[in-house]
Amino acid sequence: MGWLLLAKRTFFISTIALAGCNSAQLAEFTNKRDTTYLDTSLINDIEDGRLDMPFEQTCLIASGVDTERKMKSYLSKIEYLISRINQETCINKTGDPLTNAQTIFDWLHKNANEGTYNDCYDIRDTLNLKVGNCLSYAIRFTIICRYYAVDIKNIYVPGHIYNMLVSNGQEYYFEHTHSDGIVKNVDRNNPRKKVMTDLELIAEIFLYKARNSNNDMKYEESIKNCQRVLMCNPNDSRAVILLLDNYISKKNYEEAFRYLNNYISQHPVDKKSFEKSYNILKKLCIIKEDKF
């Protein structure tokens, strides 16, 4: 009887161990699938030049949220901010978009802005640590404003982003990175300012990631994010410049020339600004061919 009990116990333990291994393998497979699924779903969404996915989810995936569990966690953080705004302000007592936008802005500025850092583009840091830059703060503000049906706009000027609301024919501005909350006149009156689309905001996230990867000499990662910038915003010459730098750093002059030639053919107005780079890359390609 003793050996029979021992045999049963051994079989039982072996079964649990096997189940544990299978469970671990399944969890690993599921995590890999989730990571691929979210990223792929975003790329598939932006390929047609428009966004169907909810804006907040798009921003989170672009920033690096790669599993459903993490997505739920960050969406809960957004819901928590909204619940606090509901409890601590009079936002539900008025239907006026301007009043609501100002209420949201003031509450966030007082309760959820701990610091401004130029490279802190990641919306995850803004939700976790209450820090950000003009991009991540503007994105968070946009997400919450839309919850309250406030049609907030994101305004781009070279090197900066702020928000604007049009109410009764008047423009009202919201600045997240200055302590007084006032948009500088040089930004308000900048002749190159424009209203951004959601895709252009996503492109800014990818551009930050591309720059950081380039600085870390992770050129393939940077190239991938540059290509995603151009999927979202095909007119962004900054991504082209960075893409060229990546390929040149890899000594892949042919690919650099191919991208530049393709961009110039579609954007002839930029031909003059890229003329020097074009000629240099063309010579480098010829020299490399001659060596072979």
What can you see in these coordinates?
With about 290 residues, the protein is α+β, with helices and mostly antiparallel strands. Helix content is about 65%, strand content about 10%. It is built from twelve helices and six strands. The strands form two sheets. A four-stranded antiparallel β-sheet has the order 5-4-3-6, covered by helices on one side. A two-stranded parallel sheet has the order 1-2. A hairpin with a 2-residue loop joins β3 and β4 (about 160-165). α9 (about 220-230) packs antiparallel against α10. The longest helix is centred in the N-terminal third of the chain and has 45 residues, at about 1-45. The relative contact order is 0.07. The model is unreliable at about 1-35 (pLDDT under 50).
Q: What global shape is seen?
A: globular
**Tally of extended strands?**
6
Which structural class fits the helix and strand makeup? alpha+beta
SSE ordering: HHHHEHEHEEEHEHHHHH
- The share of residues in helices is 55-70%
Straight-line N-to-C gap: 81 Å
User: What about the largest sheet?
Assistant: 4 strands, antiparallel
What does the secondary structure layout of this molecule look like, with pairings?
Blueprint: H1 2-46, H2 55-63, H3 68-88, H4 97-111, E1 115-116, H5 123-129, E2 131-132, H6 134-147, E3 153-157, E4 160-167, E5 170-174, H7 185-188, E6 194-195, H8 198-215, H9 219-232, H10 237-249, H11 253-266, H12 275-291
Parallel strand pairs: 1-2
Antiparallel strand pairs: 3-4, 3-6, 4-5
